[in-house]
Amino acid sequence: MTITITAFEKSPDGGKGLARDTRVRWALEEVSQPYAVRLVSFRAMKEPAHLALHPFGQIPTYEEGDLALFETGSIVLHLAERHAGLLPRDANARARAITWMFAAVNTVEPPILDLSAARVMERDKPWYEDRLPLVMDRVRGRLNQLSARMGDADWLDGAFSAGDLMMVSVLLRLRASGILDEFPNLAAYVARGEARPAYQRAFEAQLAVNTAPPKG
Ligand SMILES: N[C@@H](CCC(=O)N[C@@H](CS)C(=O)NCC(=O)O)C(=O)O
User: Is the pTM of this model over 0.85?
Assistant: First the structure.
């Protein structure tokens, strides 16, 4: 059955891989599932046809036969449960890997998104310079905890899993801020994720979309 995901017609990051279709592409590559991509404009994302797939008018979505999903955590979990390669067989190890997926999107990603939003949307506010250090410190607080837990391990809990895929995807957004480099073990962790052939294929695929010459 053909898997179809949606992605930005033109990602605001110009192809740095920060749009969230990259993590879904990465998961699909890790489990060797071919997929098609439907590109959507910002306007189309808010129209009824797309809202029927994604109630919040965002990308990515995932369609497979009569199954339609949104939310990257759910999509990656769906793939990891159905195909070998992203979750351990042992039930407890599997539950821990899923816990890390939730930790990535629910505990680590929110302060990182707050920082991105502050940089993009609050720069012209009179309180921007006062608030920014507070937002950055909240990110540092989380990274401190994550860094302490990781120590010198390669991955979060044993072998690479969907938990790592989500966590690396979340941390990648921090690169431009320089904060990641304050935590050498986390910077190395992200680099290990990016070095995976499946990530490289996913990255190249989204880059090709975003660097293609305009049609017509
Ligand atoms: N929690 C959602 C977030 C999805 C999301 O924020 N998508 C962004 C692209 S990375 C988007 O579509 N932004 C455009 C908008 O919200 O209008 C997920 O993980 O799938």
Answer: yes
